[in-house]
Inverse folding.
């Protein structure tokens, strides 16, 4: 396992949805080492999102959801992982007839337990696999310590400097994997930045560790990074370690759940204000369509205008369709277009927003139609934060139904 690939208390990012009615194309990303991938993801996640919904609200929801997920598993996974590693060290085959005597639990001071947090972070992160010398490990530990102490802020560092640090780490990791005799150097500055990234990945702050613990965690981290194998005495300390970490994990979970609930309530309240205005504007827009005799409406409230009827056979909601489309808001803002992507989209009609699915049942293959979709048949009051579609927006789709593939 490479540097920072799986820090002991890792906090993951949530998935992101899309405004478009069909899944977006996957982006091919060049293969890199696990170490660099993990570090880059942490830095990307740290960048402020360019969103319309207040950034602090989105950040609160994202962070809270991640901590809830991590806190539920952190203790069990961390303890079991360390027990397995420690057991592998202390239970190597020994040719004796008598059964092995279990390692008795020992009392451990709080300072030792805090150091153990750093030790296990280094061990589980695989720092030793990069074959750093003492000066390199010291630089890594310094970044970790300054990050915990609040003396370094990853968001304040230039992006190009972070990328340069990751490039050095990647070159080093690849050389180690290849068994290269002379390994590429990693500068102390780059290692310090990587240590700062490990603070973000480890979830130490969410577990309540901060400036007062930074020196002890850095000390334990250094010891863990220098150790070529897990200290056999760790196993005896695990009951005390579990008792030490468990309350922190539970407190982090409770805090995260409360923060998530508060942030969601705040976002819903703000969305409701925006939605009220947008729903009113959308209603006025659709009422204005009455001047066009070609615009029809359905019982659901969908309005549509058939430009070309197409074939007699029309799709049902259980069918898949191949469609070219362009989506805009009532002010003309375009939020999606298969034409711009250069290829039509294929999807089941029961897998898209209700107004879009219903609308395409009004034409046959080869047909063209304009759909006027009120908010309650579109994304309602909860579209993807930061997208062009806002709460309560009425949507307009210009569609060309190319092909119908009957569902099973």
């Amino acid at each position: 396992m490479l540097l920072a690939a799986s820090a002991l208390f890792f906090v993951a990012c949530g998935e992101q949805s899309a405004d478009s009615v069909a899944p977006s194309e996957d982006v091919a990303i060049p293969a890199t080492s696990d170490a660099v991938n993990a570090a880059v993801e942490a830095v990307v996640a740290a960048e402020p999102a360019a969103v319309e919904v207040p950034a602090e609200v989105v950040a609160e929801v994202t962070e809270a959801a991640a901590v809830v997920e991590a806190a539920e598993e952190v203790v069990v996974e961390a303890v079991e992982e360390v027990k397995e590693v420690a057991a592998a060290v202390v239970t190597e085959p020994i040719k004796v007839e008598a059964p092995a005597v279990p390692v008795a639990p020992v009392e451990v001071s709080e300072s030792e337990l805090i150091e153990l947090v750093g030790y296990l972070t280094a061990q589980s992160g695989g720092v030793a696999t990069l074959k750093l010398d003492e000066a390199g490990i010291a630089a890594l530990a310094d970044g970790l310590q300054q990050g915990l102490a609040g003396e370094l802020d990853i968001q304040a560092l230039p992006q190009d400097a972070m990328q340069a640090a990751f490039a050095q780490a990647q070159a080093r990791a690849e050389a180690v994997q290849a068994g290269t005799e002379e390994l590429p150097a990693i500068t102390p500055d780059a290692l310090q930045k990587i240590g700062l990234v490990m603070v973000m990945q480890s979830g130490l702050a969410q577990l309540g560790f901060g400036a007062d613990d930074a020196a002890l965690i850095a000390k334990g981290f250094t010891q863990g990074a220098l150790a070529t194998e897990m200290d056999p005495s760790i196993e005896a300390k695990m009951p005390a370690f579990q008792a030490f970490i468990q309350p922190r994990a539970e407190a982090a979970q409770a805090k995260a759940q409360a923060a998530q609930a508060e942030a969601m309530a705040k976002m819903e309240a703000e969305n409701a204000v925006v939605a009220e205005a947008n729903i009113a504007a959308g209603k006025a827009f659709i009422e204005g369509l009455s001047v066009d005799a070609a615009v029809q409406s359905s019982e659901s409230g969908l309005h549509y205008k058939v430009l070309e009827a197409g074939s007699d056979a029309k799709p049902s909601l259980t069918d898949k369709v191949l469609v070219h489309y362009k989506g805009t808001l009532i002010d003309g803002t375009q939020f999606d277009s298969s034409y711009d992507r250069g290829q039509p989209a294929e999807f089941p009609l029961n897998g898209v927003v209700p107004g879009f699915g219903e609308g395409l049942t009004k034409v046959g293959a080869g047909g063209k139609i304009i759909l006027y979709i009120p908010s309650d048949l579109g994304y309602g009051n909860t579209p993807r934060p930061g997208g062009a579609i806002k709460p309560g927006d009425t949507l307009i789709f210009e569609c060309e139904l190319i092909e119908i593939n009957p569902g099973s």
The chain is about 50% helix and 10% strand.
